[in-house]
Structures are given as structure tokens and as C-alpha cells.
């Protein structure tokens, strides 16, 4: 599972000119589900995102978490995070998950975020969407569950 997390002052996602999801100060999360991803990746990725300290806390440029600043979240599905551009000029997306399972895990991720954050909005899986944002910082982080340390049991 891959995510691009952008610290934003505001963000929205529209379909055919109609806003279907928005957030204020917090995160815009572009989320890609890969082949073989499962509920474990949802938990690991959300756990990392939720605890990341990338907001100013008065003392440090990056001392506060999303919860500390009462931040909001907008999650947008983006299978293109699995683009493979190593060969030729047309990206391959064979590393992206199968659409049915990807939609299930995307929706699970959104629901998992809602357990911790009061305002979580989402785009529409598989739709042609337009995303608008005001990046704060700018501050953008890319995460891949394949590169995150797995928790010890």
C-alpha cells in the first residue's frame, strides 16, 4: 500500500464540477492499493500516518501529530501510485491491486481513519476526480508499507 500525504490548509475533490469530499487543516492522503495488500497494510499505514509528527508545535517545526492539531483528512484513491516507468514511455500498472479488492481496502482505510479522526472525507473509488489543495509548507511525504518496519508481536 502506498500513500502520498500532503499537509494542507484545505483540500477538496470534485466529480463533474461537484465537490464530493473536502477537509480543512490536516492531510490530503492519496492512497494506492497494491497487489497482495491486506488489512494488515491498512493498519500499518494508518498507524504510521496517524502518529506522524509533521505539524508545528510551537517549539519544533515538526512536533505535533494530526490528533494534536485536531486535523481533518481527505482520502483519495490513486492506483497510479503503482506506475512502473522502467520500460518504454507508457507506464505499466500491473503492481496495482485488483479493483474489487482495492476498493474494499480503500474503504476499510477510510473507515479506520474515522475511528481516530472526527472529520474524514473521501473521494469516489475509480472515478475521474479533480483534486484541489492548498499545501501547507509545502510538506509532502511518501510512504510504502513494503518499506515500513513491521511491528513486533
Q: Which terms summarize this structure?
A:
alpha/beta; 2 helices; 153 residues; globular; two-stranded antiparallel ribbon; 8 strands
Structure description:
The two termini are 21 Å apart. The protein has a single domain, classed as D-tyrosyl-trna(Tyr) Deacylase, Chain: A (3-Layer(bba) Sandwich). The longest helix is centred in the C-terminal third of the chain and has 18 residues, at 99-116. By secondary structure, the protein is α/β, with parallel strands linked by helices. It is 20% helix and 37% strand. It contains 2 helices and 8 strands; from the N terminus they run E-E-E-H-E-E-E-H-E-E. The mean pLDDT is 95. It has helices at 39-51, 99-116, and strands at residues 2-15, 18-23, 26-32, 53-55, 64-65, 72-77, 120-122, 130-144.
What CATH calls the topology is: D-tyrosyl-trna(Tyr) Deacylase, Chain: A
Structural classification? alpha/beta
Largest sheet: 6 strands, mixed
Indicate the overall shape.
globular
- Count the domains: 1
> In terms of quaternary structure, what is this?
single chain
Would you list the SSEs in sequence order as H and E? EEEHEEEHEE
CATH homologous superfamily, by name? D-tyrosyl-tRNA(Tyr) deacylase
* Rounded Rg: 15 Å
